[in-house]
Amino acid sequence: MIIMGAGEQQNPLKSLLEGQPTAARWREVCALGEGLTDGEVKALAAAVSRWPVAIREMPDAWWADWSAGKERPWHRLAAHRVLHHGLATGDGPRLFDGVSSAALSPDYRLAALAG
Fold first, then answer.
1. Do residues 16 and 38 both lie within one domain?
2. Model confidence pLDDT, tens digit, residues 16-47
């Protein structure tokens, strides 16, 4: 299993989980999480559930698979999907007057707008 207990050999995913949660670490966790079994995803999900929701965005490739009906266990690790963003640079069109970002939870039950 990818999430290891005492006495097991150290691996990159365990090291990432022991560090400070950041967006960069989240992207690394996502890359290493691809291909995990359902049980491994459950263990990893428990570990990352303590990470800030804001950094746990669903990667574009996962979204492409998920929206094409190719749901994978590791897709459940993401807390939300950013549909559009241009806040930092103002490089994108505004979605609505005063709104420049929108995000949805993977199950579409929650939406967030920011401007």
1. yes
2. 888 899 999 999 999 999 989 999 999 999 99
